[in-house]
What we know:
The protein has 276 residues and is an alpha/beta fold. It contains nine helices and eight strands.
Amino acid sequence: xxxxxxxxxxxxxxxxxxxxxxxxxxxxxxxxxxxxxxxxxxxxxxxxxxxxxxxxxxxxxxxxxxxxxxxxxxxxxxxxxxxxxxxxxxxxxxxxxxxxxxxxxxxxxxxxxxxxxxxxxxxxxxxxxxxxxxxxxxxxxxxxxxxxxxxxxxxxxxxxxxxxxxxxxxxxxxxxxxxxxxxxxxxxxxxxxxxxxxxxxxxxxxxxxxxxxxxxxxxxxxxxxxxxxxxxxxxxxxxxxxxxxxxxxxxxxxxxxxxxxxxxxxxxxxxxxxxx
Length: 276
C-alpha cells in the first residue's frame, strides 16, 4: 500500500505573486545526474549572477517516496524567484520505490548524488557555497536527512520542511496505513531492521552544528502528525540551533490560499535572515 503523501493541494497559483521579469534567466530542463530516467533535475540560473557566487535553493518533491515528480514544484520556482531575486533554483527528481525496487536508502542516495553533481558544476553555474534545501512531505524528509546527516559536498546554510517526516520509527507506529506504506518503501519493519529506520530518520542526526531550520506544519495533518515537527523543533531548541516552527492549525497535509502565501513569505524572510 502506498502512503498518499501527495502535495498537489499545496501547489496553488494563489500563492504566486506577479511573475518576476525572468528575461535572461538560463533554464536547463531534465539535466541528468545519473543513468536512471528519474535521475534528472531542472536548473534555473539568474540573469545576473553574483560576483561572489550565486546562492542556491534546491527543491525536493513529495509523494510518499513512491510517487510525485519535480514538475509538482515547478509553480514554486516562479513564486520563489519573485521573493528571492538573484537566487539559483534546482528542482530534482529521484528514483521512486515501487514493486520492491528502489527501496530505502535509494532516495537518500539520489539526493546525495544530485548534490554531488551540482557541486561538480559549481564553477560552470557560478554558484556559491550558500545552499538551501527545501522539500515537502517525503521531500521534506529527504531535505532534512541530507542536511542533518551529511556535511558534504556542502553543508547547507538552511533547510526548509513542509510537513516532512522526521522519525520513521515513530511514523511506523502512527497508524496501520503509514506502517504498510513504510514497509513498502523500506522493505522491512523497525523490529526487523531498526538500524535502517534509525539511519533514515533526520531527527536522529540533529546536532549543535545543524543549520537553521524552518518547519511548516498543518495542525490537522492526517499523514504526518504535528508531533513529527515539534520533536524536531524541541531538539533544535535543546542544542541551540536557530529555527522557526509555523503551525497552521486547521491545515491538513498541504494548504492553499492565504496560508500558502504566508508560507512563502515566511520562507523568504527566513532565508534572508540566515543565508547571508
